[in-house]
Structures are given as C-alpha cells and as structure tokens.
Amino acid sequence: MSRIKEVWKEIQDDNVFNGAAALAYYLMLAIFPMAIFLLSLLPYLPIPNLEQAIMDLMHQILPQNAAELFQGIVEDVTSQKRGGILTFGILFTIWSAASGMYAIMQQLNITYDVIEERPFWKVRGTAILLLLIFAILVIGAFTLVILGGVIQDQISKIFGSNQVVLFSFAGLRWIIIALFLALGFACIYYFGPDVEQKFRFITPGSVIGVILLVVASLGFRFYIENFGNYSATYGSIGAVIILMLWLYIAGLVILIGSEINATAEQHAPHSKSRGQKRQPR
C-alpha cells in the first residue's frame, strides 16, 4: 500500500495528468503522418484482405467514431502502391510522425526527474528509431494476426465451425497484440528517458500499462457507444474529440507505467535513485 501511495504522490508531483494532455496534443499531430507512413508500406506486403483486417482491429480497439475517422485514410492508402510517399515524402512524414515520440521522451524525463542532456541529433534520432520500431511491431502484429485468421479459416474448412477452435484463435489474436504492445512499452521505457538502465521486456510498468490500456480502451469504447453521444452534440468534430480523449488515456497510461517503473527501480537493491542518470559504480 505504501508503494501505491508513493506512486500516486509522484504522479501528482510530476503533473502526469497535464503531461498526458500535452502528449495527446502532440500525438494528435503525429498520428496521421504515422498512419500514412505505415499504410504506405502495407500494400507492398503479399497479405490478402489487408484493408479489412486493419479496419476490423481498429473497430475492436477504438470507439466507433474514432475508427471511422481512419477508415477513409486506410481505404485510400491501401488501395494502391504510392511510391511518391515512400520516396520524396518519406523524410517529412517520418520527421512529423516522430514528434509524438519526441514528446513522450520529454515527459519520461520528467517522471525520472532528469534533464535532457543528449545532443539534439541523438534525441531526434532516438525518436525516429522508436517510430521505426513501432512500424515494425505494427506490421508484424498485423501479419501474425492475419496469418492466424488464414489458419483459422483452413482449420474451419477441415473440422467445421468448432467453437473451441474459433474461441482459441480469437484469444490468440489478443495475446499477439498484447505481446507486441508490451514490447512497444519496453522499447519506450528503455530508449525514451535520458537515464542508464538495462533493457527488460517485462517490467511492472509495462505489464500494468498494457492491462490499463486494453481495459481503458474497451471501457472508453463502451462508454462512448452507450452513454456519450459526441456526434449528436458536436457533429462531425465529435470523432476528433473522441480520438483526442483516447490519446489522452493512452498518454496517461504510458506516463503512469513510467512512474511505476521509476518507483520500483528506486527500491531495487543497488539501483539509482530518482534524478540520478547512472547507477553508482
């Protein structure tokens, strides 16, 4: 219980709720260039029914209005190969999309109580590296999920519509997403703050972060679809408001997970304290 109180105190001291609002703003600016960059790569992959698979996952994770906001982009970009985006526009797109990662890195420094001292080129390079890692994770997750769907269809043809098999593959899809999400959290927490630390795939912050993000996303989606009719109140801009709120939740989860990791590391034997970048030799 004392650790929970300590984490809550650090959340208040570091203004995590304000930090999450700042992250939501920067992520909103970065998410569409990031989506265009990722979706421009996907048509080059020999994956059948790719567009439908992407939209199915988005409708499962995001609220309906927010998912529909992406639908036009998905349909337009995945309908044909766009070499121009992958050549002349790639540098601008990557730079714009990396601004969201850059904002996350600055907020993580606040949770560790450190000042950014890495050179500008290294900080921006790390943000772009994190963006590319996420691109690989997203493409890998889509590939495995779609491959699982193909295997499921083949098994259904052989053994019929067995509910146990269908339920198992549905569970496998979410396990794959959770594992790739956990790896994404691990990379952010390792490369993001300007502190020296070991890479760990499983940390208290990443585990709790994945759980919170999935539960919060599903809970927020349930609330929007059953109680919060933003479209009726705000019209077409309601989808943007919903996406901003979802990004705020995502930013809040990332920062809370970082606070949990920083607190856990502070109490680990032979570890550095908050505000200390390197472990004592």
Keywords for this entry:
about 280 residues, mainly alpha, 11 helices, about 80% helix, globular
Question: What can you see in these coordinates?
Answer:
- The chain is mainly α and 281 residues long.
- The protein has one domain.
- The chain contains 11 helices and no strands.
- α4 packs across α11, α6 packs across α7 and α9 packs antiparallel against α11.
- The relative contact order is 0.15.
User: Which series of helices and strands comes N to C?
Assistant: HHHHHHHHHHH
Instruction: Decide which structural class fits the backbone.
Output: mainly alpha
Globally, the shape reads: globular
Strand content: under 5%
Mean pLDDT: 75
Short account of what is shown:
This protein has 281 residues and is mainly α.
Topology:
Blueprint: H1 2-13, H2 16-41, H3 50-61, H4 64-78, H5 83-87, H6 90-111, H7 120-159, H8 163-191, H9 204-226, H10 230-234, H11 238-267
Helix pairs in contact: 1-11, 2-4, 2-6, 2-11, 3-4, 4-11, 6-7, 6-11, 7-8, 8-9, 9-11
